[in-house]
Amino acid sequence: MRGKKIFVLIILCLFCGMVSSAKAYETDEIEDYIQNPFYLEHKEECISKHWTFFANKPVFRYNRPESGHTLDKRIEKGERVYILSIYQTAGESWGLLFWSRDKEGNITNSTGWVKLSDLEFVYDTNAFYTDHKGEMVSDSDKGELGRTLQSVRKKIKKDSKENPFKNVIVWSYPCSGEIVCRVAVEEYPTQNTIVNHPIYQDKEGRYWMLGSSYSYTIGTKWGGTAICLSEPTNAGISEQRIEPYTTPEMFEEEEKGFPVLYVAGIVAVLAGICVIFFYIKWKRRQEKRT
Questions:
Q1: What is the SS3 assignment for 207?
Q2: What dihedral angle (degrees, nearest 10) is formed by the CA atoms of 265, 271, 276, 278?
Q3: What is the pTM (predicted TM-score) of this model?
Q4: Residue of 48, 55, 47 whose CA lies nearest to 115
Q5: What is the DSSP letter of 62?
Q6: CA–CA separation, 109 vs 97, rounded Å?
Q7: Helix boundaries (H) for the chain
Q8: DSSP 71-138
Q9: What is the block-wise mean pLDDT of the chain (290 residues), using blocks of 10 residues?
């Protein structure tokens, strides 16, 4: 009888552990400040995804997913929007807005929900950080990094005197191969700026400062871009796809496949426990007979 109780207890513990781990979606501190009523009601059902999207047509904003009630100001064609969290219904993925940037670069705080199917996904530093935030240089190492890069800062200033057209290259994300713009050498990040931003080191040992829009004050010039701190004026850094590289399509497929894999995992665990339990029971009977 005692063996049966232990067996049942083990099963319950394992099942509860699997359920809780499935719900333990990663969140960022910024989401603690979200005041959207629907988000606050359904926070446990929302999934943290800090993504940027482009509007290639006018897009309506809604006060809550599937409400049918649109908000006054829509997202205009040509704007970029920043999504903090995703809520999924049976037929649609909805994104919680945080800010939007118009074609002139003006940033506006925004709110409400948009259909992700109405927008075009942009893989930038925001998406890169979401995929790789566990690989960022630790805060304790940033101070030393800033001092090390002083030599780079001095070199590019010296080079700019010989070649006034030499600029710091701004990329869409590390090793993207996509140049967003070029800025003056004087704009090379200071040590204080570096300390306050996420830093990524690629496999070639180059350091990149990420201007992830949720890692510092919204609206600064580095939002959603990256600078190679080690080779700031090198426009020839080749494109490399650094895994993981998550897109909405991959994310949706992952979410669709999750229930099947989850059930299969539960069945496998329970089957293994049953085999062990009956083996122990059979073994005890054999011992009693002998």
A1: strand
A2: 160
A3: 0.68
A4: 55
A5: B
A6: 9
A7: 2-23, 37-41, 125-132, 139-148, 150-162, 191-195, 248-289
A8: -SSPBPTT-EEEEEEEEE-SS-EEEEEEEEE-TT--EEE--SEEEGGGSEEE-SHHHHHHHHGGGSPP
A9: 46 40 38 80 91 94 91 91 92 91 80 94 91 90 78 89 86 93 87 84 93 44 78 95 88 50 54 68 68
Q: Phi-psi category of 171—alpha, beta or left, where left has phi over 0 and alpha has psi -120 to 50?
A: beta
Kindly tell me the sign of the dihedral angle through the C-alpha atoms of 101, 105, 107, 108.
negative
Domains of the chain in start order, with CATH, are 26-122 (2.30.30), 131-228 (no CATH)
Closest of 105, 120, 124, 114 to residue 50, by C-alpha? 124
pLDDT value, residue 245: 93
- DSSP-derived 3-state class of residue 246: coil
Name, in order, each residue with C-beta under 8 angstroms of 100's C-beta and a sequence gap of 6 or more. 75, 79, 80, 81, 82, 107, 108, 110
Please name the residues in contact with 176: beta carbons below 8 A apart, sequence gap of 6 or more: 123, 226, 239
Helix 150-162 / helix 139-148 crossing angle, nearest 10 deg: 40
At 246, give phi and psi (nearest 5°): -90, 135
d(C-alpha 45, C-alpha 99), whole Å = 22
| CA angle, 285 then 286 then 290, to 5° | 115
List the one residue out of 131, 124, 119, 70 whose CA is nearest residue 95.
119
Alpha carbon 55 to chain centroid distance? 20
